[in-house]
Amino acid sequence: MTTTLFGIPNCDTVKRARTWMDTQGVPYTFHDFRKNGLPDAALDRWLQAPGWEALLNRRGTTWRQLDEATRASVVDAASARAVLAAHPTLIKRPVVEWQPARVVTVGFDPAAWTAHAAGKA
């Protein structure tokens, strides 16, 4: 199994993450939310760990464009799942499923990623 990096290609953080993976020689597959969709099974795994609070990007443009009622309705994993499935760009990026450890990380953290890439985390 290969490590998978999920995101959108025009996101600056995803660009930095992909560059880091390439320069570190970490083999990975890139999954574009916009082009390839958001896999239901992956979203369910992410809601288990690291959890809906870590996944939901409340600072981004997509969040600000939602109506107040929708934003207020996100109070638990089930409500977050519905909003994230409808608006995948609300997911904090990138999400990485590290293999073979099956660890999921959210966001770009080069220091933490070094351990994951080495299989030590």
Tell me briefly what this model is.
This protein is an alpha+beta fold.
Strand order of the largest sheet: 2-1-3-4
Contiguous helical run count = 7
Radius of gyration: 14 Å
Proportion of beta-strand residues: 5-15%
Mean of residue pLDDT values: 94
Give unreliable regions as ranges: none
Whole-Å distance between the termini?
Answer: 17 Å
Order of helices and strands: EHEHHHHHEEH
**Share in helix:** 40-55%
Label the structural class.
alpha+beta
Number of strands: 4
Biggest sheet layout: 4 strands, mixed
Please state the overall shape, judged from the principal axes of the Cα atoms. Answer: globular
How would you sum up this structure, described in words?
This protein has helices at residues 12-24, 33-36, 40-55, 61-65, 68-73, 77-86, 110-117, and strands at 3-7, 28-32, 95-98, 103-106. With 121 residues, it is of the alpha+beta class. A 4-stranded mixed beta sheet has the order 2-1-3-4, sandwiched between helices. α1 (12-24) links the parallel β1 and β2 (28-32). The radius of gyration is 14 Å and the shape is globular. 21% of the residues are buried. Pfam families: ArsC. This is ArsC family reductase. Belongs to the ArsC family. It comes from Variovorax rhizosphaerae.
